[in-house]
């Protein structure tokens, strides 16, 4: 029962991303070609509103529904892993046209070849885990 | 109803994505999809091979439920909430894609030139999605997050590391789109 609310959030997330076309390979291509405002509008408005929302959540010291103080973790302070990891991610994002949320959503839209993308992304994560200590961070 | 069936404009979609993030924060969680790939590795037994996967996957199972919901949401959106309108891509994008050999750009969510079974059962097609998926999975964990964790949640929380990661996303994406895709297609 406690999982039902997360299921509902997931369903909403899936619907929004399909209806926004952010799950489309074509929209990602168009974004990296700077030929449309669409994706920049989506991410930009989400971030601007997100900044205001998180500011208010902190300012008002809101509690989560379990009654705990909300704590939004800060990212570790480092540089190389964010830049290199980011570049590798970006190469894959523009090639496959799908990032880790849309992969699952697209599977739901009936694109079963997405299972291969999800499997390779899981393998990529596994290989990162194996190499983690040897990579610069 | 027509407003729902048509594609949603950015000024509706963007704020709704913020809403997803805020709901998860109010549920005491955070918005990040790529960590599910790590959880999947742990469930599959990867903790025997690397300490990175020694996590209590049950404490992340809520996020797998979000994934399950996302799959259902994708199904609902295409089956019941869409009118099959083509994606309203810019004229230049359609022209550039034509030059690369992608016809009927925007008629589906994904190009059949990459994702149809015919394409996937070729060496090139299979390589494209396997390499693409691998880079996404590897890069997201190396960078500590993906579009949801860094570009949305991290930037909203004014995290400098997330800005660096997003700049990385764009360097990689621009190199792929402008230099590598024309070599592949």
From TrEMBL, chain A:
The chain crosses the membrane at residues 38-57, 78-98, 104-131. InterPro entries: DUF6691 (IPR046513). Keywords: Membrane, Transmembrane, Transmembrane helix. It comes from the Bacteria. It holds the Pfam family DUF6691. This is Uncharacterized protein. It comes from Maribacter vaceletii.
From TrEMBL, chain B:
InterPro entries: Sulf_transp_TsuA/YedE (IPR007272). The keyword Cell membrane applies. Keywords: Cell inner membrane, Cell membrane, Membrane, Transmembrane, Transmembrane helix, Transport. The chain crosses the membrane at residues 12-28, 62-81, 119-142, 163-184. It is a multi-pass membrane protein. It comes from the Bacteria. It is found in: Cell inner membrane. GO terms for cellular component: plasma membrane. Its main location: membrane. Belongs to the TsuA/YedE (TC 9.B.102) family. This is Uncharacterized protein.
């Amino acid at each position: 029962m406690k999982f039902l609310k997360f299921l509902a959030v997931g369903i909403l997330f899936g619907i929004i991303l399909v209806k926004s076309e952010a799950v489309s390979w074509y929209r990602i291509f168009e974004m990296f070609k700077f030929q449309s405002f669409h994706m920049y509008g989506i991410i930009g408005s989400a971030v601007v509103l997100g900044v205001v929302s998180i500011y208010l959540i902190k300012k008002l010291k809101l509690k989560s529904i379990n009654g705990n103080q909300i704590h939004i973790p800060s990212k570790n302070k480092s540089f190389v892993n964010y830049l290199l990891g980011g570049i590798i991610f970006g190469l894959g994002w523009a090639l496959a046209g799908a990032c880790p949320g849309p992969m699952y959503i697209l599977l739901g839209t009936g694109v079963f070849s997405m299972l291969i993308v999800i499997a390779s992304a899981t393998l990529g994560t596994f290989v990162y885990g194996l190499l983690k200590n040897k990579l610069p961070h | 109803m027509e407003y729902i069936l048509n594609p949603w404009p950015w000024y509706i979609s963007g704020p709704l994505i913020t809403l997803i993030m805020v709901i998860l924060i109010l549920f005491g969680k955070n918005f990040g999809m790529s960590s599910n790939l790590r959880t999947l590795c742990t469930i599959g037994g990867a903790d025997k091979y690397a300490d990175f996967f020694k996590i209590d996957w049950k404490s992340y199972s809520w996020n797998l439920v979000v994934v399950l919901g996302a799959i259902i949401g994708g199904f609902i959106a295409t089956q019941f909430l869409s009118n099959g309108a083509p994606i309203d891509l810019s004229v230049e994008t359609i022209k550039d894609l034509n030059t690369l050999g992608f016809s009927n750009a925007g008629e589906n969510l994904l190009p059949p030139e990459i994702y149809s079974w015919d394409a996937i059962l070729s060496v090139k097609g299979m390589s494209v999605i396997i390499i693409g998926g691998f880079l996404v999975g590897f890069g997201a964990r190396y960078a500590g997050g993906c579009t949801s964790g860094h570009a949305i949640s991290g930037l909203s929380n004014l995290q400098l590391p997330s800005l660096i990661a997003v700049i990385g996303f764009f360097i990689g994406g621009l190199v792929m789109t402008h230099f590598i895709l024309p070599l592949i297609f």
